[in-house]
Write a structure and sequence with these properties.
Radius of gyration: 21 Å
GO molecular function: hydrolase activity, acting on carbon-nitrogen (but not peptide) bonds; phosphatidylinositol-4,5-bisphosphate phospholipase C activity
Bound molecules: zinc ion
Structural class: alpha/beta
CATH topology of one domain: TIM Barrel
GO cellular component, one term: extracellular region
Helix content: 40-55%
Largest sheet: 6 strands, parallel
Number of helices: 14
Main location: secreted
Distance between the termini: 41 Å
Subcellular location: Secreted
Protein name: Polysaccharide deacetylase family protein
Order of helices and strands: EEHHEEEHEEHEHHHHHHEHEHEEEHH
CATH class of one domain: Alpha Beta
Strand content: 5-15%
CATH superfamily of one domain: Glycoside hydrolase/deacetylase
Length: 394
Amino acid sequence: MPRRSQQSSSLCGANVTSPGDQNVRYHVHIERSNNNGTSLRTVLRQIRIQTLDACGQLQAARSNIARKHGVIVLMLHRIIPDGQMHQCRSPRGMVLRESGFRALLQYLRAETDIIAPTDLSHTRVRSERPQVLVTFDDGWADNYEVAAPYLAAFNIKACFFVVTAYAGCSHPFWPEHVLWLRGLTQQTHRSDLWKSFLESFHARSNNRPRPEIVSGSEERVLSWLKQFSAAEILERVDEALFRLDPTLDRIASDPYERLMTWEEMRSLAKQGHMLASHTCTHPLLTHLGGRAVAEELRNSWLALNTKVWQGTGSSAWISYPNGDVDSSVQAAAQKAGYRYGFTTVPGVWPGRCESLSIPRVNIWDGSLLSSDGTFNENSLAHTLFWRPSHATWH
Ligand SMILES: [Zn+2]
């Protein structure tokens, strides 16, 4: 029985192509930019990055981070084989295609000092290159099946933050289901169903979907839906899908839309990676009461200790679901024994001390690919160095 949580992380768009496979009636397609479909925003971003590079700003940001011994903590979610991108239902902002991941690791090996999770507490080494730590959120099966072999090939140790209560479960989070519905309603020209799906939430709240929500970007829609429970969202998705097509096969064609099993997690640990907490059920921690927060923190730690570390050690790291954290949650994490807490706030971490609010840099296709889908070093440098160094130093 699939288990589902209340949240997912980065939220970007996805749309749907026409069905082309006899075995899979509908395909969700990650929109690939091309010369005909490049948005104005993308063009402006490329011009801006080229200008920054020409002015030496990208190199200056990189050197500044290295000089200050800053640590760039990367946040990845899903690594999908290029040929299966069309099957992936996750928000675009949490998907990096396999070829992009390989290019990322090649770049990191050549241009940065990659630190292992176990070395995080003593990172202030003399180097002219920025220090980088690689982390993954959620514990998707593709982390094990697709990403881990590349990490081994490049001799990179990473930290995998996992949702312990859903280990091994398929289709665990609601955003994939919502984007699936949205894509199908677009494909079948049933915008009325999409609108009534959103308006159905009005019955139980006074937060009526505004027009910009109904026709807005997927990121905006998913952000708006976070105010409702996962159970309610999924129930309404099912109702809408049934109205769309009662015979619809709901099984996703993405073979990686499941979370890693405990056996797979143990295998990663044996390879030298760190397995750490992303809570038990992926809730927004600031929306919970103190006791529920404490249980999420404690029980996820206990599950990892029992099923992965098996009493041999403890990482005591946590990534807050959706980066949702405040001073109360930090205090609870500290009380539960966590030493390092990771957010989704972009920035550079000085790496000088234990911290429960370490910033991270989200990496997805748009972070390093040009509009034609090829690796763009300047785009990645902009993502890795310029943007974090112009955000905040924590
Ligand atoms: Zn997450």
